[in-house]
Specification:
Number of domains: 2
Strand content: 25-35%
Largest sheet: 5 strands, antiparallel
Distance between the termini: 21 Å
Shape: globular
Length: about 160
Amino acid sequence: MSRVTLSSHGRRLAGIPEEAEYFFWVFPLVQDRQGAIGVSPEEQVEPLIQFLLQGGFCYCSDDGTVLSVDAISHKREDMFLQFDSPEVLPRAIVEKMRKRGRFHQVVAPFLRQRGAKQFCWVLPDEIFGQVNVGGAHGAFVYLVEGKSSGLIFPVLSA
């Protein structure tokens, strides 16, 4: 869990409750478990199903009460969290993250078709090998087939 670091404006854009103090990322169900849900294509756009299949963020009060759950969505939404263009993350840092067991399999077909194999969420200001990988607001790191370095997508402030 990490403190919410976005400004009030950034919180409004992302639909984060103003009283939220902390947040955490929830990884999607692994590929072999997703079939067990047994939902139709129409049901796959429902927020709870998107949360299970794509993952999402939970926002909590100071005492840890969950205030909001936001699923990753591929449809147009009123609220959004914006990410910067990818930056290369050196192989040495990727290896430090691997040793800590940070990476999970990519399950989203859209990303898998583009070569993404594994990913992780990095908390704001999280350090690996003296490098602030998480940046000011957190970041996703993706490992792509055929590359030893990673790609980091930092959250932009609004």
